[in-house]
Amino acid sequence: MESILSNVLMFVLGLIGLSFLVTIHELGHFLVAKWNNVKVNTFSIGFGKKLIRYRRGETEYCISAIPFGGYVAMAGENPDTLKEGQVPDERDFVAKSVGARASIAFAGPFINIVFAFILLMILYMVGVEEPATNNLIVGFVAKDSPALAAGIQPGDTVTEINGKPTQGWDDFREQIGVSLGASVPLTVHRGGEPLTITVVPEELIVPAQDSTGSEIALGIGDIGIYPRNRVIVRLPPVAGSAAEKAGLAVGDTIFEINGEHISRYEEVVRIIDGSKGEPVNITVIRNGDTLTKALTPVYNEDYKRYMVGIQMGYVLFRETKIVWSCGSLHENLCH
């Protein structure tokens, strides 16, 4: 259901964006036509049946039913519908010089180009935020991982891999992934001091996406380090679940369970399942407030483990810089 709603929202936003671009495009035709003293009968956003109409002076402004385009209807533009003597020649599109007609026709795409150029300048001047991906700040080191064995700690900043500057988490994972079983030197900064740490990636193994409890070996390398992030409640808790009864809400950050700090979704799964149905205390952060909720996990026959009825997601800490392009990381997990 969430996927359907997301697709519908993206479709609606796409239509709004398209309508805005069409408005800018048709506005170019309209303004230059008026500047050349051509009578404009209709300025329409969309085609087909006119849903909203407003007339000012000689021009009717309207929004039509089909939002994939728009048009400016000028006197004399369509000879098939032109009535003799409808407008004087000086107001007729066809009667205008070649230069005037060309300027009217070119005005639409020209104003789109100018608009894009202005928008790009604004982005360069104002900037938008994106993760500072060249600074790989370690948020979590997995238990029994090559990174932990090599001495990498949470809070370390990885700046080089194989002697070359890091280019973001995606590039880092790719290089580690193809280095299965090989020695990989990393430059790590800790307390302002650079350290050289060598890691040997091991094969990444993940749980199978079913209820069998089996695992899948992916054939790629992994060292067990992850970005700094928060584990949040991504969707409303399942109706009737322990999480709903306890009052957990969308956006809550799962900070601790039974006093153990949470930085990975696997920790939530491990602690909840390990409770064997005994009550657990979950500490969440909501709008700056710290709240502790008591929940009693319930055994789920489909997944063969104890659960509390929440879906989780990751939100990166705001380690950002101002740049002209943007990027994001999002991961959805259901537990």
Report on the architecture of this protein.
This protein is α+β, with helices and mostly antiparallel strands and 335 residues long. The chain has three domains: 125 residues, no CATH class; 92 residues, Pdz3 Domain; 88 residues, Pdz3 Domain. Helix content is 27%, strand content 38%. The strands form seven sheets. Strands 4, 5, 6, 7, 8 and 11 form a six-stranded antiparallel sheet that branches. Strands 14-13-15-16 form a four-stranded antiparallel sheet. The two termini are 17 Å apart.
Number of strands: 21
In whole angstroms, how far apart are the ends?
Answer: 17 Å
Mean pLDDT reading:
81
Strand content: 35-45%
Shape: elongated
Poorly predicted spans: 319-335
Radius of gyration: 30 Å
Query: What structural class do the secondary elements suggest?
Result: alpha+beta
SSE ordering: HEEHEEHEEHEEEEEEHEEHEEEEEEE
Helix content: 25-40%
Number of helices: 6
Main sheet makeup: 6 strands, antiparallel
What is the domain tally?
A: 3
Oligomeric state, counting identical vs distinct chains? single chain
